[in-house]
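FAQ: What does the model actually see?

It sees only this:
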Amino acid sequence: MRLATSRAVSLTLCSAALFLAAGPAVLRADIQLIGTARFPGEATDHSGLTDKLKGDIPHNRLGGISAIEYTGHGNMYLLLPDRGPNDGDSEYRCRFHALELIANPGGTTPLTAKITATTMLQTERAANFVGSAWAFDERGAAQSLRFDPEGIRIDRQGQLFISDEYGPSVYRFAPSGRRTAVLNVPRRFQIAHPAATPAEESAKNTAGRQTNGGLEGLAISPDGLKLFAAMQRPLLQDSQPGKKRTGTNTRVIEFDLKSGSTREFLYPLDVTANGVSEILAVNGHEFLVLERDGRGGAEAVNKRIYRVDLQGATDISSRDTLPASEIPADIKPARKTPFIDLLAPRFGLAGSDFPEKLEGLAFGPDLPDGRRLLVVAVDNDHVAERPILLWAFAIDRQDLPGFGW
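And it is asked to produce this:
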């Protein structure tokens, strides 16, 4: 489904202003917000489900978008919802959607979006994956039905890779939605004692992923040989103990899809309040990374996209633990360069209704004038009063040197 020759850059470079963590904005005058597409918070999908979840929420409600991926064909994308409404307290059946997204810069309607199909996600034996925090299996994540999808990418054969924040896990699926493989996430990322509530799970574990801080972002290299999964927050053993674990040293896993081997790299967050929401490959070693805080509206402070380079970064696979904030002298972390500040005034997005959860990044087909398209997907948490948003940005080619698609 994904063809390097047809792959173009999509829409999300929301700010012609680039922001340095502790410094002034760097202007990229050629980055332009070209349009916003909206789905109402009460919109429905194509699942055909007719029952209702806890809180009288229709099971076929469209929402909770955690990732977006371009298929490589025309104007077709995939949208991936997370574990559903009620923060893991429902039997929401996990799924993904086919999306037609058409960018027409300067047109009367510069961005139009339409859901065309919904596919349910299942195990190899056709059991339904669900968002319920209670649907875990003590034997391990691979045996569990609980699933919190956060990232989705497509390889050259049309197979889907989806990251799971619960595990944390990475699974491969056929286009039909049936799981076909479980990737080998290193043991240090796993929790030994899963539980249904965050408080109980936190009390039982001293190592592995934090609750609601697992594998959030997913990227695939242009040649389809490497997959990269980014942790939202530092591991328990890499963070400072307290009421809420804090730290800035989080990890990115590189999977060699042919050999099954892995490497790990240190990604330094700007501040402990931030987390990684998405990672998107520019080429084989450079990425766009969406890093944000958990605030919305006028309280939002950090909503930024960085260009990140793993070339020359130290493989930290032998490090079971990291300091909470300091970077050891013998470790070279991923290099970060400010790319876009999504709160930059020129885009007109900041303000009282600025969304908390910016979740997805995808390149799309090149625009008619040759600029690259980047799309940012916004999560509405399945709340009927909040719209689902897609922001489309046009990027001048000179702002993405080394683009590999």
